[in-house]
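Running this now, will post back.
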Amino acid sequence: LARQLTLLESKLFADIKPDQLLVVGQKKSDSLTAASTLSNQITGWVADSILGEQDLKKRTMLLKYFIKVADVSIVVRMADRY
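Update: finished.
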């Protein structure tokens, strides 16, 4: 899961040009909007998954799982850079 999410995000973030991040008061670029939208969707999905679980033990397990996925995602991103 971590690798797949990293691949999805990295493709979108690679399309963002540095000068697109500096534009103030103008319409966002399509690539910046796409990356932001995906990030928000993933965040919402994780939050809904955790908070939607009624059983406290299962909720705790989900939280631990998503923390591990985030850790692996960071490692994968760093490895892909070098």
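The mean pLDDT is 86. More later if anyone needs it.
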